[in-house]
Backbone:
């Protein structure tokens, strides 16, 4: 294997494009139906002016500065300005509640906060510490705070190519987590820089590439793919304006690289099938020439006809869904990583896909499986540790390896398969341990099921809690019951005796970020779901029907 690529800072990459491509468009920001563009020169000018404004505030070097906003051009500008001014960024999810925002800002000792594109700032701002200095973004201004435009107009651009030491802390990312308070994952310019430099040796980004940004930039995956990926390759970025305009914005961007969590791919599939029933679609794509035309038309309608790489991650993606898209000419590549290792761990090469695995290790990543089956990862992309939590940091490392919390196995070719979560395993009334994730993946092959959570603590056998897809909710209840019962009959025979599902319970309310049942990256949070429904498990279990409606 070739030697590792040296890490470079984002600042060094910015200076390169300022010099080499000053008038090329870098960012496309939609606002009120209009696209606003920023060239590399304009982007750099805003970053340099804001860096001067932050410097003028007189904070000690390496002070923490927060960012709370949905994805937009000024999110990236503020992040680079924080770096250039010698400080450390602390991104927050744009939909956190006031209590979580207060905890993160106080725990990180943030001096200032960029406040941008938000849906419910009125309900969040009670979590602001009294003495924090707030700066509001253009286009999404919140009254009562220092305005971005005023600050950049008062300060001259910071001069020169000011870089940061590779060992300096670049950012502290507070994980959304599925349990407990968020933990501050501390990354250096070196760990982040190592990850992107070496990822780009195997993930080939085409010249003049386009990225589409819609998943939270406060999450490591979007930050690595869009922010790091675009700035390190001199590519363009298109932002989504809102959920309502998402489809149009994606078609306009027609990205070269796209990342969708499994739920996004499922929604794409449901949207296609709502217009073109499966039987008809199968007939059309089998016809020579016409089939290629139909497939290309579908890809264009999605906005993915130009996509060289289509990624999925954050949760298991059913093999059936990946094979379905493959027939349309869309090859979905699974990736695996976490905040603690800069999302740099495993990657499915486009020409070497093994369904059921998350791919092979990225360059210069060392992987091993512990005695209890836990995946351990070692590379220079691993975090420094959890900010101000040395005991937690010590507990998550073993001989330099990061303990991922995921269970898995590695085959002879280095393909990694995730078999569950160490902490998600529960014990039934019979004293048998059940790992829910593999069972959930089998159930999710039923397209009527959008969300599923297998539970069973204290029950003789597990049960499955499911939320129906939008299309399924329009169907006749008897049809749904028959479909779910058929899935139980298909899945149970391939499970161990103690894993076999006794019931399937159809819930009324969709699990969402807003009701606390999903993380911002749409992972299921088991604890809130269990807290809400555990008192009903025994009642449901004792009912005679296999399929029960809440």
Residues:
């Amino acid at each position: 294997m070739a030697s590792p690529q040296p890490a470079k800072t984002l600042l060094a990459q910015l200076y390169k494009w300022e010099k080499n491509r000053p008038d090329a468009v870098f960012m496309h920001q939609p606002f009120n139906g209009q696209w606003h563009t920023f060239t590399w020169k304009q982007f750099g000018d805003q970053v340099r002016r804001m860096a001067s404004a932050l410097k003028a505030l007189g904070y000690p070097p390496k002070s923490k500065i927060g960012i709370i906003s949905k994805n937009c051009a000024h999110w990236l500008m503020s992040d680079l300005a924080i770096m250039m001014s010698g400080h450390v960024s602390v991104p927050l999810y744009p939909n956190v509640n006031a209590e979580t925002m207060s905890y993160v800002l106080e725990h990180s000792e943030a001096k200032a906060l960029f406040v941008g594109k938000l849906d419910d700032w009125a309900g969040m701002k009670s979590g602001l510490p009294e003495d924090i200095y707030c700066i509001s973004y253009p286009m999404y201004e919140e009254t009562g705070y220092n305005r971005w435009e005023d600050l950049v107009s008062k300060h001259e651009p910071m001069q020169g190519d000011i870089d940061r030491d590779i060992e300096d802390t670049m950012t502290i990312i507070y994980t959304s987590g599925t349990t407990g308070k968020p933990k501050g994952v501390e990354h250096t310019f070196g760990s982040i820089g190592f990850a992107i430099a070496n990822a780009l040796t195997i993930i080939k980004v085409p010249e003049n590439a386009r990225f589409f940004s819609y998943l939270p930039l406060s999450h490591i995956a979007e930050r690595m793919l869009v922010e790091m990926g675009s700035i390190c390759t001199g590519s363009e970025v298109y932002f989504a304006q809102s959920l309502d305009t998402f489809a149009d914005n994606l078609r306009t961007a027609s990205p070269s690289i796209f990342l969708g969590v499994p739920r996004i791919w499922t929604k794409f599939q449901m949207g296609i099938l709502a217009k073109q029933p499966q039987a008809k679609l199968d007939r059309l794509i089998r016809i020579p020439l016409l089939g290629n035309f139909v497939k290309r038309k579908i890809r264009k309608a999605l906005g993915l006809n130009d996509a060289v790489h289509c990624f999925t991650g954050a949760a298991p993606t059913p093999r059936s869904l990946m094979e379905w898209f493959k027939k349309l000419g869309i090859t979905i590549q699974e990736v695996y990583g976490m905040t603690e290792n800069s999302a740099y761990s495993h990657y499915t090469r486009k020409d070497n896909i093994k369904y059921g695995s998350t791919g092979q290790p990225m360059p210069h990543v060392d992987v091993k499986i512990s005695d209890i089956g836990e995946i351990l990862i070692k590379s220079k992309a691993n975090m420094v540790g959890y900010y101000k939590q040395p005991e937690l940091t010590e507990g998550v490392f073993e001989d330099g390896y990061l303990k991922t919390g995921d269970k898995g196995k590695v085959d002879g070719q280095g393909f990694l398969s995730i078999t569950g979560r160490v902490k998600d395993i529960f014990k039934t009334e019979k004293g048998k341990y059940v790992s829910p994730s593999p069972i959930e993946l089998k159930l999710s092959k039923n397209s009527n099921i959008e969300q599923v959570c297998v539970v069973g603590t204290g029950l003789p056998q597990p049960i499955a809690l499911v939320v129906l897809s939008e299309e399924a909710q329009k169907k006749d209840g008897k049809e749904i019951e028959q479909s779910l019962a058929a899935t139980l009959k298909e899945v149970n025979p391939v499970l161990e005796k103690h894993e076999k599902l006794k019931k399937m319970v159809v819930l009324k309310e969709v699990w969402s970020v807003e009701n606390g049942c999903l993380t911002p990256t749409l992972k299921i949070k088991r604890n809130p779901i269990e807290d809400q429904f555990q008192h009903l498990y025994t009642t449901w279990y004792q009912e005679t029907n296999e399929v029960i409606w809440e």
Observations:
- The longest strand covers residues 401-410.
